[in-house]
Amino acid sequence: MIRNRFSSDDAKSLRSKIFELINDADAPVAEVVRALAQCQAHIQNRMIVEQTLKECRLRPTGFNANEHLELYYDIAQGKREVGYISKGWDDPGFRVGDVIEVSKLKIATLKEHAYALLKYCATRGIVMTVEENDNSVKLQMDSVIYSDGFNKKVFAQVLHYLTECTAKAEQLFG
Fold it and tell me: Quick check: 25 pLDDT over 80?
């Protein structure tokens, strides 16, 4: 989580380090400005997500950021995992989702009920994709919240519908 206690001396030190990196970088000014803007957006997005999770009485159980992901959090309610929230660097919003793994032993049941589950989720704004591997079939369910519409109410609603869809999948294939 982003630290809340930060002194003015810490800020000066951080600013000095950033300027040192910028001055040593062999990059066009436009690229430096773009990188700084991405850093600023990343920090603001993390703060928004962390605050929203707190307001919804959820907690992040893991964090990741890399060259593809601006942010990724697993989300828990108590001890129970309830999905994830992620955002790519160039994405216009956040993806809220979960993954259900179905044993290959239940492939016939999956084929029989896949369309009904797909339709059930779609009416709730949840998209479902299917990925098969050697031992199982993964059902990835997710929805998108555009950055300018991300707030506690919208997030809670999307998470509610996601939970309904994952419960339905577990009921059918669990």
Answer: no
Rounded Cα–Cα distance for residues 99 and 163 (Å): 11
Q: Which three-class secondary structure string do you get for 55-114?
A: HCCCEEEEEECCCCEEEEEEEEECCEEEEEEEEECCCCEEEEEEEEEEEHHHHHHHHHHH
pTM of the model: 0.83
Amino acid at 95: R
pLDDT at 95: 96
- N-terminal to C-terminal alpha carbon distance within the chain: 33
Phi and psi for 99 in degrees, rounded to 5?
A: -125, 130
Domains along the chain with CATH numbers: 8-173 (3.30.1460.10)
- Beta carbons of 112 and 172 less than 8 angstroms apart: no
Q: Cβ(96)–Cβ(149) under 8 Å?
A: no
